[in-house]
Design a protein that fits this description.
This is Reverse transcriptase zinc-binding domain-containing protein. The protein is mainly alpha-helical and 279 residues long. It has 2 domains: 73 residues, no CATH class; 148 residues, no CATH class. Helices cover 55% and strands 0% of the residues. It has 14 helices and no strands. Helix 7 crosses helix 12 and helix 10 packs antiparallel against helix 12. It starts with a helix and ends with a helix. The site of zinc ion (ZN) has 6 residues, from loops. Zinc ion binds next to loops.
Length: 279
């Protein structure tokens, strides 16, 4: 996770997003990363699941014959004192139960994944741009980029809180990507390139969901999404150049980068474009 935390063995950096959020599933607003210990427990527990779902498989019958004991009905058979792989699996499942997750409940309860938590911001991940761009959009959507207002909230000393592009208001994620005049010029250009009416966006969430509003086929929607995510990336990169390298903001550069990077990334990833190029 060091790429996300930005730290190295010798230096610790700010953790903008908590581990709890990072480890949530993507459709619940996280990155879908899972601690290895949890992965191992899940793999072990899956054998318990497999046993209940496929009781007539040969290995299941072997487990039954080795571990069933007359007169003592348990959810999964286990003969105390008998060591081996199955005992380790049962130990892992019991460990899960102690932390409140019962395999029995998971098997019985209907899959209710469709009931999404309303308070969670879920990003529609774009396969046409690199993962780093998606992660940056995800952080922006959660309001967890290290903008000046966020640094001030964390009591990290900075000389000024004003937006480095317009120098008119305090820098926040929403201002940088929607309210700032630099951002507005970028979105006007993006709308023009995509053949869309002018964007009226008030939050990063409006931007990362804008492609859902387009009445067109999925290919076009995905390409518009790629353009918007690329533009978010380029605005953030330009902002960092100004903050850390004292560069003067140059809107034509941002626009050129958005166009070039988006075309490059999409042509590398979109199978249809590759097919057309090969033909
Ligand atoms: Zn500004």
């Amino acid at each position: 996770m060091n790429f996300l935390w930005g730290g190295t063995e010798g230096a610790r950096k700010i953790h903008c997003v908590s581990k709890e959020v990072v480890c949530r599933r993507k459709d619940e607003g996280g990155l879908g990363l899972t601690p290895l210990k949890v992965v191992n427990t899940c793999f072990l527990a899956k054998w318990g699941w497999n046993y209940k779902k496929n009781p007539n498989k040969f290995w299941g019958k072997v487990v039954s014959s080795l571990h069933s004991s007359w007169g003592r009905e348990t959810f999964l058979p286990i003969k105390n004192g008998r060591r081996g792989v199955w005992s380790n699996i049962i130990k892992a499942i019991k460990g899960m139960e102690e932390s409140g997750v019962r395999l029995e409940d998971l098997i019985m309860v209907e899959d209710n994944r469709s009931e999404r938590r309303m308070d969670v911001k879920v990003l529609d991940w774009c396969k046409l741009v690199p993962l780093k761009v998606n992660v940056m959009a995800w952080k922006a959507n959660l309001g967890r980029l290290a903008t000046k207002d966020a640094l001030m909230r964390r009591r990290i000393g900075i000389s000024s809180s004003e937006c480095v592009f317009c120098r008119e208001v305090d820098e926040s994620v929403e201002h940088l990507f929607t309210g700032c005049k630099v951002a507005m010029v970028v979105w006007q250009a993006v709308a023009r390139w995509c053949g869309l009416p002018k964007f009226f966006v008030f939050s990063v969430q409006d931007l990362v969901e804008a492609h859902f509003q387009i009445k067109s086929n999925i290919t076009r929607r995905k390409r518009v999404q790629a353009m918007i995510y690329t533009a978010l990336w380029c605005i953030w990169k330009e902002r960092n150049e100004v903050v850390f390298n004292n560069k003067v903001v140059a809107i034509p550069n941002i626009l050129c980068n958005v166009k070039c990077l988006c075309n490059f990334w999409v042509s590398c990833r979109d199978k249809e474009v590759i097919r057309m190029g090969a033909g």
